[in-house]
Design brief:
ATP binding, Asp/Glu/Uridylate_kinase, binds N-acetyl-L-glutamyl 5-phosphate, 10 helices, binds adenosine-5'-diphosphate, 8-stranded mixed beta sheet, alpha/beta, globular, two-stranded antiparallel sheet, Carbamate kinase
């Protein structure tokens, strides 16, 4: 008879986890899951590999994942190198013409390609595009104070549905086009929310560098409703980069997204844990 060593007890636990995933796999078959991959959530090459593997696995089991990425820290690094000063207002970058050119170069050129390559290295079919491609995201100016920052007002989802049919994983850089062909910088969270809303996604996962939305005592709140978010924002508990995230969550839910989760993208297999196990991660936001 074969003995149960410590090692094969680990295998038994792995097999059990796989087996227990069945109801979740059934629930998400054919579902659309938009994943916002924030610049702070992107780690080293190994973390990128784990993220890409999870996304390819999602596609393999019948989910339609869409990646919308950020890259704020990478943009900051390039702006510093070029000695271009940059300010944020309520988590959004004040963007002039010189800045938007750098944003496009870094996001579409560097960050997007890195994610696409990681997905393709894992055997998936990742295709990179920005909101300018195929007029995916038409924008209007956000706040005049922010310059060339756009709010998506029209999302053409045809290209995304065509990609799902072709087994392609879309990887979207948050840039948009104005009605006169001008380029807009879109906050990554805002772009992800707009795409998720237009697709009526089943889930929007916002991957960041904190475990979730924290209360005044610094504890992660695991379930949040709209009224609570509004209160925490007016109290200043939700601040900085968390403002566009929670605003996005509320907006996406209003547009028909079933639920939004804000979670730590640096935690290994964060997306799989959230979707396919009973151990939901981060803060889950639903309609009131
Ligand atoms: N109530 C809050 N709970 C958690 N994080 C918060 C809160 N208020 C502000 N933050 C800040 O928001 C940051 C996440 O936003 P951001 O840096 O823009 O992330 P990303 O690059 O992933 O989009 C956190 O690292 C944290 O410093
Ligand atoms: C208007 C605006 O703020 N655009 C962002 C776009 C990138 C982004 O959102 O990156 P993270 O998700 O990593 O923060 C910026 O210029 O930094």
């Amino acid at each position: 008879m074969r003995k149960q060593t410590a090692m094969n007890r680990d295998w038994i636990a792995t097999a059990r986890t796989l087996s227990e995933a069945l109801p979740y796999l059934q629930r998400y078959e054919g579902a659309i899951v938009v994943v916002k991959f924030g610049g702070h959530a992107m780690g080293d090459d190994e973390a990128m590999e784990v993220f890409a593997r999870d996304i390819v696995l999602m596609r393999q089991v019948g989910v339609n994942p869409v990646i919308v990425h950020g890259g704020g820290p990478m943009i900051n690094e390039m702006l510093e190198r070029l000695e271009i000063k940059s300010d944020f207002v309520n988590g959004k970058r004040v963007t002039d013409q010189a800045t938007v050119e750098v944003v496009e170069m870094v996001l579409s050129g560097r960050v997007n390609k890195r994610i696409v390559q990681a997905i393709n290295d894992m055997g998936g079919k990742g295709v990179g595009l920005s909101g300018k491609d195929a007029r995916l995201m038409i924008c209007e100016p956000d706040d005049p104070e922010l310059g060339l920052v756009g709010t998506p007002v029209e999302i053409d989802t045809h290209i995304l549905h065509a990609m799902f049919k072709a087994d392609i994983i879309p990887v979207i850089a948050p840039l948009g086009m104005g009605r006169d062909g001008e380029t807009y910088n879109i906050n990554g969270d805002t772009a992800a929310g707009a795409v998720a809303g237009a697709l009526r996604a089943d889930r929007l996962l916002l991957l960041t560098d904190v475990a979730g939305v924290k209360n005044a005592d610094g504890e992660v709140v695991t379930e949040l409703r709209a009224a609570q978010i509004r209160q925490m924002t007016s109290d200043g508990v939700i601040a900085g980069g968390m403002i566009p995230k929670t605003e996005t969550a509320l907006d996406a839910i209003e547009r028909g997204v079933r639920a939004v989760v804000i979670l730590d993208g640096r935690a290994p297999n964060a997306t799989l844990l959230e979707l396919f196990t009973e151990h939901g991660a981060g803060s889950l936001i639903r309609a009131d």
